[in-house]
Design brief:
The chain has 660 residues and is an alpha+beta fold. It has four domains: 2-41; 56-296, Fic-like fold (Orthogonal Bundle), CATH 1.10.3290.10; 307-406, Phosphorylase Kinase, domain 1 (2-Layer Sandwich), CATH 3.30.200.20; 419-658, Aminoglycoside 3'-phosphotransferase, Chain: A, domain 2 (Alpha-Beta Complex). The chain has 24 helices and 13 strands.
Length: 660
């Protein structure tokens, strides 16, 4: 028989929150979690309470745990980075949720990865990014041991409150009311003196550090020095002080918001700080225990499995037992981990982005079908590992999808180190196309509908120009005109497909150099990876996208357009490798390869421009006009191709004739 958290809390005489913590820490034998709830044996005995609740004893317990943590084996740099990132996601989500930000923890994670959520207000996403900057600021400040002063607090606020530029770092100038709470926040002319008095009393307090933090937090929130973001600033200050003392930062959980806000009311009613001190103490205990358990789970050597990955790594049918799982790779869409088993086998474990890909089962069905077909023809490809369920993916309790495949020891370049590298990518993608010549492309799932439907991209640009939701169209009329002047030719490839002049192929649709593995000794291509965007399409799509990215002489967001050109030597090398390794191309396909390079570049430019006009809602940006810069580089590349069109067509003809 099993009981609920609520009934167990009543039977043990403790809070429901405390019951959940005890279960999560593994201190209730037989308890197991389903979704967000816990099933607890009806005869379970309440664990002994190892906490000390008051005064110096409270600090002593925290100090003991800190000493224990310091004595345990350290984490690898990769583990530290992953732990820090996971904490930031959870901390920022909870603190923002307390302040009314509706983004979920999954959405917070994606925003912090640099992914713009198209269907969510940009203002909430900017708050997430500003919160990370503020947390990074206090983390860096710990290293130089900055004292908490009014100027420091205003600096934290200035970084955090990007959404209200005029109020950043400025004390409020109007009275505030907090309905249902007494007394009201101090008047504007008293803010500075009250804050200085609070800091003075905090510095000279002889209370335990948790009691000091509780009293300071309540006092700061009672002053409410700023027009907005006081709670977020206050919680950052708590963590700054904890980190200065050598403790891990803590999370004030949104699920416990009633207890959190009640602690302020308790102080206003009785002057007691015990409720807030208990919240800080429990959250600190939780942070310490989490890190202690994590360190204990690894036997003092690099390459063990962190506890947060144990539930995932054992869901796949690996050869041997996993002995290590560490962050791996530089991808920004899918999070990857490197897994090693006791047999020496190596695997890549990935969490698939739910924003980029909405139909993961369809995506994996494509990848499995294509990879098996390539293997049956003697080609090298990814070898996916089934999960315990028999599927080639695993959906965890949060709804995230995971997949794994055998690791291939090879060279993966972000950019060509020598011209021959780009040639080898042409060989790889041409061979990919050739091996899939007899695969029924129309049976594949279209995981991203209309991905390379250039006319549809122009429809989206027209819509963005018409709505002009950010009032930017007037300033970019030259770019808009450039795109629309070339719209008439944008449907040529799709029209040829519809009338049967071009065959439907299996296309990769992300033909960048970093999706090709090279032999580290010979630098010859081994195989193509990242099959997430494998769909029905045209050979000109893959050829054109590779040229757009790999044969450009400048970065995708280069602001100096004089640096942007098409490198005809690289163009020729890729064409040579692609055509040589793909002898099944029809004459019509060869004839439109040049057009494919122009249209894929034009299409990409229209997408960047439409997103800029629409408020940068799809492509992640690191500065306000980055999408406009991206659009301009693509359009400059299109213009350069047009200026060298005769030469480009000659290159294609000569390389095609070379392999007749």
């Amino acid at each position: 028989m099993y009981s609920t958290v609520k009934s167990t809390a009543s039977r043990w005489g403790i809070s429901e929150r405390r019951v959940r913590i005890l279960c999560a820490e593994g201190r209730v034998p037989g308890a197991y979690q389903i979704g967000r709830g816990w099933h607890i044996p009806s005869d379970a005995v309440k664990p002994s309470d190892m906490r000390c609740r008051t005064g110096e004893a409270e600090a002593f317990t925290a100090e003991q745990k800190k000493e224990l943590l310091d004595s345990l084996p350290g984490l690898t740099e990769g583990e530290k980075q992953q732990l820090a990132y996971s904490f930031e996601v959870e901390y920022i989500f909870n603190s923002e949720a307390m302040a009314g930000n509706p983004l979920s923890i999954r959405e917070t994670d994606l925003v912090l990865q640099g992914i713009t959520l198209v269907d969510k207000p940009l203002s909430y996403q900017k708050r997430i990014l500003a919160h990370k900057k503020a947390f990074d600021f206090i983390s860096d400040s710990v290293k130089v041991k900055r004292a908490v002063t009014p100027d420091f607090i205003r600096q934290v606020h200035s970084i955090l409150l990007e959404e209200l530029p005029q109020d950043r770092g400025e004390y409020r100038k109007i009275p505030l009311r907090t309905f249902g709470t007494s007394p009201e926040p101090v008047q504007p002319d008293m803010i500075e003196s009250e804050l200085e008095r609070t800091l003075y009393e905090y510095d000279r307090s002889r209370d335990s550090f948790i009691a000091k933090l509780a009293r300071f937090h309540i006092a700061f929130e009672s002053i409410r020095p700023f027009i907005d973001a006081n709670g977020r600033v206050g919680r950052l200050l708590i963590n700054y002080e904890l980190m200065r003392l050598g403790y891990p930062p803590i999370i004030f959980y949104f699920s416990d918001r009633r207890a959190y806000f009640s602690a302020f009311e308790s102080y206003q009613n009785s002057g007691g700080i015990s409720a807030m001190a208990q919240i800080i103490s429990e959250n600190l205990e939780r942070a310490l225990d989490s890190r202690i358990n994590l360190s204990r789970s690894r036997p003092g050597k690099a390459g063990s499995i962190a506890s947060y990955m144990e539930n995932i790594v054992y869901k796949f049918k690996f050869e041997g037992n996993p002995v290590s799982c560490e962050p791996f790779g530089a991808g920004h869409i899918n999070k990857s981990f490197f897994v090693t088993t006791d047999t020496g086998k190596k695997y890549v474990l990935q969490c698939i982005s739910p924003v980029a890909f909405h139909d993961v089962p369809g995506l994996m069905a494509n990848a499995i079908a294509v990879s098996k077909h390539i293997a049956s023809k003697g080609g090298r490809t990814l070898n996916f590992i089934p999960a315990e369920t028999g599927d080639y993916y695993y959906a965890d309790e949060s709804g995230a999808y995971w997949r794994s495949y055998e690791h291939i020891d090879a060279l993966c370049l972000q950019a060509a180190e020598q011209p021959e590298d780009f040639y080898e990518s042409g060989v790889a993608f041409g061979n990919f196309q050739n091996l899939l010549n007899d695969f029924p492309a129309d049976t594949l799932c279209e995981t991203i509908p209309n991905f390379h439907n250039t006319p549809e991209r122009f429809v989206q640009l027209h819509s963005a120009v018409s709505s002009d939701r950010m009032h930017r169209a007037a300033q970019v009329q030259d770019e808009i005109n450039f795109a629309f002047e070339r719209e008439a030719d944008s449907g040529t490839l799709m029209e040829m497909l519809y009338v049967g002049d071009l065959p439907l192929r299996v296309t990769h649709n992300d033909t960048k150099l970093n999706n090709v593995l090279l032999d580290p000794n010979t630098r010859k291509s081994i195989c193509v990876i990242d099959l997430d965007t494998v769909m029905p399409g045209l050979s000109a799509f893959d050829f054109g996208d590779a040229i757009r990215f790999g044969a450009s002489t400048a970065a995708e967001d280069e602001q100096d357009l004089s640096k942007v050109h098409v490198n005809l030597y690289l163009y020729r090398l890729f064409a040579r490798g692609y055509i040589k390794s793909c002898p099944i191309l029809t004459e019509n396909e060869k004839d439109v390869l040049a057009l494919g390079s122009k249209l894929m570049t034009l299409e990409c430019g229209t997408r960047f421009l439409a997103d800029y006009l629409d408020g940068d809602r799809y492509f992640g940006i690191s500065y306000p006009e980055q999408n406009l810069d991206r659009a301009r580089t693509q359009f400059k590349l299109v213009k350069d191709m047009e200026d060298h069109w005769t030469e480009i067509e000659t290159i294609i003809k000569e390389e095609a004739d070379r392999f007749i």
